[in-house]
Design brief:
Elements (H helix, E strand, L loop, with lengths): L1 E6 L14 H7 L2 E10 L3 E2 L2 E2 L13 E2 L21 E2 L14 E2 L3 E13 L7 E9 L13 E2 L22 E9 L1
Parallel strand pairs: 4-10
Antiparallel strand pairs: 1-2, 2-8, 3-7, 5-6, 8-9, 9-11
């Protein structure tokens, strides 16, 4: 994660517009830009077997006969990992695939905030702050892990993105707010 803060150089006492009239400075000066860039690798996940050959309850792992992870240039939402690297184990046999051996899609997201504080009196304590915030500015899809149930028709397919319940990894969102300091 990388974050930054930039006081824009426009307005009175700044590089550009040092001598702006007060009315123009009120609109153009004193803005600040904040950014947060999130770059994460994908989360590990475990394959499971769609068919339970143990004749019992609970999940079962498949047999691993290959690596399973595809090179990044071969991954797509329709084939995130190599499903042919796994097979259903024999009757009454535990599968040999380990835990968390596959890696899901990563996160690449940039969030921006633009804000300005309007002084209401000579003291900076009393002010009105305006904020405009953009989350996931480029609207890059933040895909979730694929279906990892070996033997099912959707194995290896990613069918969802983001986490709207937690407001994380979502599609582009914008919000504006005003805060009064008194």
């Amino acid at each position: 994660m990388l974050s930054g803060f930039w006081q824009l150089p426009f307005g009175r006492g700044r590089t550009f517009g040092k001598n702006l009239p007060r009315a123009v400075d009120l609109l153009a000066g004193g803005w600040q830009l904040n950014t947060i860039t999130s770059l994460y690798t994908g989360l590990p996940f475990s394959p499971s077997s769609a068919v339970n050959t143990l004749n019992g309850s609970g999940g079962q792992r498949p047999d691993r006969i290959g690596n399973g992870n595809l090179p990044s240039d071969q991954r797509s939402i329709l084939r995130w990992f190599d499903t042919t690297a796994f097979r259903t184990p024999g009757q009454y046999v535990f599968g040999n695939a380990g835990r968390d051996i596959l890696i899901g899609p990563g996160t690449r997201q940039v969030d921006l905030a633009l804000s300005k504080s309007f002084a209401l009196t000579e003291t900076p304590r009393r002010a009105l702050e305006f904020r405009a915030e953009l989350f996931n500015v480029s609207n890059t899809p933040q895909f979730n892990n694929p279906n990892a149930s070996i033997g099912s028709a959707n194995a290896g397919i990613i069918s969802s993105a983001g986490s709207p319940q937690t407001f994380q990894r979502t599609s582009r969102q914008a919000q504006m707010a005003m805060k009064l300091y008194f």
